[in-house]
Design goal:
Blueprint (H helix, E strand, L loop, with lengths): L1 H37 L3 E4 L4 E3 L10 E6 L2 E7 L3 E4 L11 E3 L8 E8 L12 E6 L6 E5 L4 E6 L8 E6 L2 E3 L6 E4 L8 E7 L4 E3 L3 E2 L13 E2 L2 E2 H56 L3 H12 L12 H10 L47
Parallel strand pairs: 1-8
Antiparallel strand pairs: 2-6, 3-4, 3-7, 4-5, 7-8, 9-10, 10-13, 11-12, 11-14, 14-15, 14-16, 17-18
Length: 368
C-alpha cells in the first residue's frame, strides 16, 4: 500500500512540474515576442548598415569584447591582438561596424571593456537592434458589391505594417485599417490612394479615380459589328473628303475647258473680222471711173443679148449707125441689169456690210 501511494504522489508531482514548465515557456515566448516587436533601440533595414557606438574612450592597453546576446563576435586584447573577429569589424575608437544586415543579426549588442589591471569598466550601455524588411509597393483594389470596399493590397508580407488612407489627397485620420468601407456609391470626381509604412520605410500606391462610378451610357455604341465606332466615323470622313477633292478637281477642269473654248472662239472671230476688213479695203481700192465705165458698158448691151461682149470701138460704131428714135414713140426703159444671187450668210457669223448698188437712170425725153 505504501509503495502504491508513493507512486501516485510521484505522478501528481510530475504533472505539476510539467504544467509549471509549460506556463514558464509560454511566458518566455510572450516576453521575447514583445521584446522583438516593441523594445528595439534601433530598427535597421535588411541589407543595410549600422554602427553600435562605444560610449568609452578606448586605449591600446584596454581589452575589448563585443557581445550579441551571449555570443562573442569581437575580442581584442591589448596591443590590437584579435582573438575573435578582425580589425575590419570595429573602428579605431572601438565602435562596432555592422554591414549587410540580415534577420539573423537582430539582437542585443553590448560591450565589455577591461583596463590594464583587468578591472571591468562598469555601466557601458548596450543596444537592442531589430532588422526589418522594407514595405513593398502597395496597390488599391476595390469591390463594388454589396458595398464599395477599397483594400490596400501588398504582394508580400511586411514587418509591422501600418496603413493610411487618402481621399482627394486629404488624410482620413480615422481610417487606419487595411480595408476601407465606403457608404456612398454615387462617387464622381473622387480619388483614393493608400500608404503603407513601418519603422524603416514608407510607400504610397497609385491613385484610383472614381471607383465603382457608373457613367451614363453613350448615345452611340462603342462598337459596330465588332469594330470601333470611331473607325467608322473616320472612314466616313475620309470618303467625304475624297468626294470634295473630286468635285473641286472637276470644277477646275470645267473652268479650264470653258476658258480655252472662249479663247478659240475669240481667235476665230478675230480672224474672220480681219478677212472681212481686207475684202472691204480691196473693193474700195478700185478706181471709180473703171467701175462707172464698167456699169455703163454693161447697160448699153441690147436687150436680150446673150452673146459675147463687142469691142468698145465696134459698139460705138454700131450705135452711130442706128436710127434716131421716133419722137412719137417713146423709148422703152432699159432693163435693170440682172443681179447675182445673194450669197448665203451663216446666221452664226456676223453679216458683212451691203455692197453698193448702181444708180437707176430715168428715160431720156425725146428732143424736139
Amino acid at each position: 500500500m505504501e509503495s502504491g501511494c508513493s507512486s501516485f504522489q510521484l505522478n501528481i508531482m510530475m504533472m505539476k512540474m510539467a504544467a509549471v514548465s509549460t506556463i514558464t515557456l509560454f511566458l518566455l515566448c510572450c516576453s521575447f515576442a514583445s521584446t522583438d516587436s516593441k523594445d528595439c533601440d534601433y530598427n535597421a533595414a535588411t541589407g543595410g548598415n549600422y554602427t553600435v557606438i562605444l560610449a568609452h574612450k578606448l586605449t591600446s592597453s584596454n581589452r575589448l569584447k563585443w557581445m550579441r546576446d551571449s555570443k562573442v563576435i569581437v575580442h581584442r586584447r591589448q596591443n590590437n591582438v584579435f582573438v575573435e573577429g578582425t580589425k575590419e569589424n570595429i573602428y579605431e575608437n572601438g565602435s562596432l561596424k555592422l554591414t549587410n544586415l540580415q534577420k539573423s543579426d537582430a539582437g542585443k549588442y553590448y560591450p565589455e571593456v577591461h583596463d590594464s589591471d583587468g578591472k571591468q569598466i562598469p555601466n557601458l550601455k548596450g543596444t537592442r537592434l531589430c532588422i526589418l524588411d522594407p514595405v513593398p509597393m502597395p496597390r488599391v483594389i476595390f469591390k463594388c458589391s454589396p458595398s464599395v470596399s477599397l483594400t490596400c493590397n501588398i504582394d508580400q508580407q511586411a514587418d509591422n505594417p501600418s496603413f493610411q488612407w487618402f481621399h482627394n489627397n486629404k488624410v482620413l485620420t480615422k481610417k487606419t485599417n487595411q480595408t476601407l468601407i465606403l457608404e456612398d456609391k454615387k462617387m464622381h470626381k473622387d480619388s483614393f490612394h493608400c500608404e503603407v509604412s513601418n519603422a524603416i520605410s514608407s510607400l504610397k500606391s497609385t491613385t484610383v479615380d472614381n471607383p465603382c462610378f457608373d457613367p451614363p451610357k453613350p448615345f452611340f455604341p462603342d462598337k459596330v459589328l465588332g469594330i470601333n465606332t470611331w473607325i467608322f466615323v473616320g472612314g466616313g470622313g475620309g470618303v467625304v473628303l475624297v468626294l470634295i477633292i473630286i468635285v473641286i478637281v472637276c470644277c477646275i477642269q470645267t473652268r479650264r475647258k470653258k476658258r480655252l473654248q472662249l479663247k478659240d472662239e475669240g481667235e476665230l472671230r478675230l480672224a474672220w473680222t480681219s478677212e472681212q476688213q481686207h475684202q472691204h479695203q480691196h473693193q474700195h481700192n478700185h478706181p471709180p471711173d473703171q467701175q462707172h465705165h464698167h456699169h455703163h458698158h454693161h447697160q448699153q448691151q441690147p436687150a436680150g443679148h446673150t452673146g459675147p461682149r463687142q469691142h468698145r470701138s465696134k459698139q460705138h460704131h454700131n450705135q452711130q449707125r442706128t436710127r434716131a428714135p421716133n419722137p412719137s414713140h417713146p423709148q422703152p426703159s432699159p432693163r435693170r441689169p440682172a443681179q447675182a444671187p445673194p450669197i448665203p450668210v451663216d446666221n452664226d457669223d456676223e453679216q458683212p456690210p451691203p455692197l453698193p448698188q448702181p444708180r437707176k437712170k430715168a428715160p431720156k425725153s425725146p428732143r424736139v
